Give the backbone structure.
Amino acid sequence: MNTQKERTVFADKTMKRILLICTAVLLALMAGCALAEEQVYTSGAYSYTLDKYGEATILTMPGPEDPSGLLLVPAKVDGHKVEALDASCFPMETDEVMMPQGCYMRSHQQQTHEFRVYWYLDYEGIRELDIAKYLPHMLVKPGEYLLTGAAYRYDISGNWEKLTQDYYLYPTSVNGAKILMETSPDSVTSYTSGHFTYFKTSPETVAICYFDDQEARKVRVPDTLDGLTVVALMPRYGWGNAIYAPRAKEIILPDTLKIIGDNAIYSEDLKELNLPEGLEEIGAYSINAYPVKKLVLPSTLKKIGPYAFNGCRSLKQVTMGAGVEEIDPTSFEDTAKKFTIVAPKGSYAESYAKENKFGFKKAK
């Protein structure tokens, strides 16, 4: 009797297991069918699918327009945020890829070739992240991009390799859109020559990122280091100022200089600073020098960044040319109370001075 009951119970349990297995198999088949029937959308040369949140996974895309083989992945396609990419979607002529921040590669797809990967924040992405609240000196306008993080190589087996770069390989523009460079990434190798530490911005040019003589009374920034041309003062993230010389009364800059980057110069005793002709851009918080009273900006200068003269509390007058196209509203925020801009009549500098309630004098 007990044997019969045991057999019946065993049979019932076996039947339940079979039913559960059949149900699982059926659900798996249904899921497979659903995936197989996933709708594919097209937009020009792009094809993509959408997840339940309306975010896109790109399946195919056009080749790079940039002759260097650099491919820009859009942040949106048909208004849908690009969330993922099939690793097989990049044409064979693609050597480098710029992807929107947060975008990832679907690893189960077979990769066709190796390429270098960068991430960027676009204007909309920066607004969504409210990055201006935390990093107000990072200015990005529509059509411009801000690179983030280091470069990686994505190899044929789907592995990521962080790259150490001998020089600053990041592109300065993609399809005509400017890439903003704030500081050099940690992946770029730095070198030391005398009191100066620098990184290469190309095989022939360098940016000085550190000066180690804090007691220097006079600083002469060289026009070459180790045979390479000095074109920028650009501190590395977390390193402080490029030229930190609190005791310096004079800082002499080379004629080869094109960019004075963010947080570039600091001095508490500076009496003389001549900005060289050929200079094109002054970055954010770039010159922090308490006793500077008058400054003549070179005629080649085009852009002055946010809080550029922060800390120049004695600065009473700045002379600039008609070539200046952009000045941030905060560029001269921390200067003397009676601050005057000297510039050509009808120039952008004149309208900027009046707009920000600064004094204005017509240049001779």
In short: Residues 292-364 form one domain.
